[in-house]
Fold these 3 entries.
Entry 1:
Amino acid sequence: MDNLITLSMKELQRYEVAQKLIKKQISEDEARKSMGLKSVRQVRRIKQKVIKDGAQGIIHKSRGKASNRKLKEEFIKEVMQIINEKYHDFKPTFAAEKLLENHNLRINKESLRQLMIKEKLWKPKSRKRPKQRHTWRPRRSNYGEMQQFDGSYHKWFEDRGEEACLLVSIDDATSKITEAKFDKNEGVVAVFKFWLQYFKKNGLPLSIYLDKFSTYKINHKLAVDNKDLLTQFQRAMKQVGIETITAHSPQAKGRVERAFGTLQDRLTKELKLANISSIKEANQFLKTYIPKFNQKFSVVPKNQANLHKEIDKQTEKKLPQIFSRQLERKVNNDYTIMFENGFYQLNEIQPTTVFKKDTVIMEKHLNEEIKICLNGHYLKYEVLPERPKKQNIKLCALTRQKSGYIPPKDHIWRKFNYSTKSAQKNKLELTSV
């Protein structure tokens, strides 16, 4: 019994065309067009194979044979042993990178994906159609034109250490991480320290894109409940000349959201491999990790100009004041001020005139120092150990200097009576004098 030859539809069509060509029913050029080939030379080669081997000449010689690129069993065994020991919770792409980086074993990510699926270390996800389509917003053209900023609460150290929040700014034009820092929360102090560090390193960007409501995540159990935080942030950015843009949805600032998705997968595992379990160690690790991350995931901007602005000396001197928490308070009748459960007694001599009920600005600097500002002047004060008793100091105002002159009893000023009934009488007495 002759061996059975199985041909695909494409091979069967080519065999029929080759038969017509052999019988000289069509020309070589017509055969080329029918077979969908680019040159007549290919047609002649197929014709010679059919004359020599018949239908077997149409079939590719490597059919039924193992591929020359097939991975060796010893290599597969070595790879899967390392994966099971160190990278069993890694995604295939990241695992392939670590095999090359740490073990000098090169394997295609798709080949590794199939091996991990076979070993039940990776479960393929079904593709789902998005419920709502979002159009892509074009990137900004220049580096430094817009920074997307957000914070992410996540188990960055898994169960090895303290919980932390990662603050990140992403350049909109390049998707480059321009600054990243671990902190305990996303409160006022943490955010202000983050941007002070950013300005010293990069300069002032033109604008910052952030969440409208959830940037500071006051609903999170680790977040500091600062209802005035967004206002403080906008106030500080306005003073240094940076525009703040608020997003109406997470998708609007998708570059930083996608970066967090990648970091939550990759950075968490990198910290685990480095056995890092504290915020201090993690921030030190970021100095070497972020350049590698940017090299892999950043893109080339449309224009090459850097639009970051340098900080002038005048603004640099004011940075501690600008990046302080500022709240309004009233001067009481006894010239005391209450702020954050503390009591501050104003001194009698001040650089500017202070009246009762004046509105002052309480500044709490990042170094915990408290300053009281009125009309651009810092007032002198003393911290009281306890709540003062209610009293009304007769001083009408606190001034630059204390006057030592006291008018005598018979001074003409003491003869004035400004009541409505005696105003005319005083006027007549003065006229007679």
Entry 2:
Amino acid sequence: MPNFVYLTLDTTSPANPSLSILGGATFATAQLVDLTIGTTDSDKSGYQMKVWGDVDTAYDTNIKATDALSTWITFNNSKQVKLSAGDGSKTVYVKIRDDVYNESSIASDGITLDTSIPTVTVTNPDVNKISKMAGKNESSFTFTVDKQFGEYKVKVVSSTGAAESTGATIGTANGSTNTSGNVGSYPAGTPITVKITGVDLETASSGDGQKVIKVFAKDMTGKWSS
């Protein structure tokens, strides 16, 4: 019988813990998101992880709002969580421990939950009837959007309930201004004044009569107003 044993001492924590939400995206358009979790340790046998933060605690009973309330679970490079309700900034945290419970430092990532579509508000035009004759060939109105947006279009559509994918954007070849834009970031509440001329309106539509002019805005997550 031997008079000795081998015993391995391991006091090294998992190295370089990492966490990204939706691959590092700035915005999430739904509460359910995928996390990518990592450590540079090559052998992760027996590893566990603990996840917590701004989450819907009813979705996964192991994942809570705080470190203390969350439960250690088997390590996995991917994990789906449900962010807490309500648009706004969300942060998720993770730490990893090895098979002898050495704990890593905490890694985190933040994302903005944005589930609402933009709301466009249009003022009454200065005139409601125009022609192609000088002095009577222009109408102007102003619109605002309730959230930051990156693109807009002013279109002739078939009805007030029409979607962005329908209708025709009014051109600017004959004096109309601000009938579209995509500078990338317009602050919420920015007033934009649109001018439409009779010739450009005729080009975008067909024949005389009352036209439905609708403004569409696309927010920073790619959602168009209705």
Entry 3:
Amino acid sequence: MHIFALNCGSSSVKSALIDTSTRQRLFAARVENLGAPGADLQAAVAKVLQDLHEHGAPDAIAHRIVHGGERFVQATRIDDAVLEQIEKLSHLAPLHNPPALAAVRLARSAYPQTPHIAIFDTAFHATLPGHAREYALPADLRQRFGIRRYGFHGISHAHVMATVAVKLGADADQLRIVSCHLGNGASAAAIERGRSVDTSMGMTPLEGLVMGTRAGDLDPGILLDLLQSRDLDAAAVDEVLNKKSGLTGLAGTNDVREIERRATAGDERCRLALAIYSYRVRKYIGAYAAVMGGADAIAFTGGVGENSASIREACLQRLEFLGATVDARANRNVHLDDVSPCCEISQPGARTRILVVRADEELAMALETASATSSS
């Protein structure tokens, strides 16, 4: 099947027309820095869809939707009712669901006869056990407001799981994997025997690791104090949490390459930002190894996870007790491409294998869509 995967994020559009029988990309387009002057989401998506026409109508179009709530736990064909239900979840992923929905509407208008399939980032984490899923809040509040851990980056974590299994020559249901998706958004997942059993993001994508513009884990008392000070209202706090925190709040930018450059030049703010970032990742790796009774593999993916050898090295410090020992040369010389989408950077004979996986949400979306449409 020829599946067009349309992956709209908070600041980018990634897309690819994929022949799922060969996994070959027949067409691909990427637009970055949306929101900057002259960079408009609707215009970007319209241009991508126009370019797609030159390659003929796809068999289906896959759309990445970040938050599927409790209802959407598998690939779902999009109709007006489904769109309405997804829209009701936008407040839980305000940076992601609205632009994705705008892209869905444009694509449905351009290809009204083509099946449109929603692939949900939260779906992979539907297997979370109760003790990892629930927050220690009153039951009536949890039920009334749907408060629970949903988790995100599920498309990416599922792709990591499948890729690691192939690399190690094992079935996914035989492995314990700590998957670290490190990009502008970042999350870790504990994947035990083919199932997500814990993940760092929670009810919204704000919880967990330090991210490009999001702080990750915070004492909720901080938020109460900010609100009670009356210097910031709820909208201002939302702005701080989603757009002004994380690496941006610590270093003044979310460009990791720039932060690393400044840190090397002696900028203490940037050095601290990188230390906090890697420390948080290391804490979650250790915690998830404890959750699973060990780890067979630790995997890095995402723009930062794939491209920053120094951050990978910092995240893996003091994990020798897990049997996770890094080969410094292999770590410095990671190269990923279509032929080699996974690279090992652990020392020979290491008990816990350390891998770097090329992120490919578009391929994962296309394969899941092909499976869903062929079985329906």
